[in-house]
Amino acid sequence: MNQTQQVPVTVLTGFLGAGKTTLLNRILTEQHGRRYAVIVNEFGEEGIDNDLVVDADEEVFEMNNGCICCTVRGDLIRILSGLMKRADQLDAIIVETTGLADPAPVAQTFFVDQDVADRTKLDAIVTVADAVHLNSQLGEHHEAEEQVAFADVVLLNKTDLVDETGLDGVEKRIKKINPYTKIIRTAHCDAPLENILSLDAFSLERVLEVEPDFLDSDHDHEHDDDVTSVSFVSEAPLDLEKFEAWFGKLLQTHGQDILRSKGIIEFLGIDERYVFQGVHMLMDASPMGAWPEGANRNSRMVFIGRNLESMNLKEGFEGCKAA
Questions:
Q1: What is the enclosing helix (H) or strand (E) of 314?
Q2: Strand 258-265 to strand 228-234: parallel, antiparallel, or no bridges (unpaired)?
Q3: In 3D, which of 249, 254, 256 has the Cα closest to residue 310?
Q4: Strand (E) or helix (H) holding 209
Q5: Quick check: 259 and 227 in contact, CB under 8 A?
Q6: Is it the case that residue 45 has pLDDT exceeding 50?
Q7: CATH architecture of 3-210
Q8: pTM above the 0.85 mark?
Q9: How far is CA 37 from the centre of its chain?
Q10: Does the domain formed by 228-318 have CATH 2.30.30.240?
């Protein structure tokens, strides 16, 4: 099969909270006239990212509870194979990995599975990097370093929160790991889409320089076993004041160990859904619009981090329910 018949695939990666979903929503809402299928992977049992992706015409496939390169790789191959049956209706595919994924085994899928290799072409690995937290993440998490090492493009995001000296230092750190990558500074992932999609940038030769065993199906893949996730659901609405008091104190006291927090909340007396997303002690919350018609109005939260069992998260969450 020649390359013109292969569907290009962009792998969108980056550590927890860097801004991948923000970028994905930009891709899905801008007027570019292209048709995308999106595959979203989450770390944790309670899927939230799928609901944070805007309501667009594109199809969104969700895979939960596991690194995309391990427990759900079979699902990835299955979804890709299904999409290939109507490849003539697609311009491209976007795979958004969990923030704890090493992108190497994800990319490997497009070479070691023959059917996928015949029908798709890995266009680029785009890594969204958090300019505020990247330096510490690189020191603590092997996955963050792999995400930079395999990037064809690094979107250095949240640059509005870091001064010029800090940004220069982060860029030097990135270039030390991956001298080949293109770095684009952004706030809110506002880079032009032509710098992200349809790049034809992935080079197998360069990857084999970094990891000679890349095409070995038993490719070594490490996990940070200290990092776990917990999720909670409440069918009863939450009390806004109770939630703000609990969550604010939680981030103050345990923020260093909470790598990522996110949720969609129903507050008593408020008609709109509220979405919040946090990285360590930084948190942003805002109304998300009306609940979809017929949707189950409940509150869902996910925490990803270390020592979560010591934070009494379940008791705190339960304590926020409206009386």
A1: helix 313-318
A2: unpaired
A3: 254
A4: helix 204-210
A5: yes
A6: no
A7: 3-Layer(aba) Sandwich (3.40)
A8: no
A9: 16
A10: no
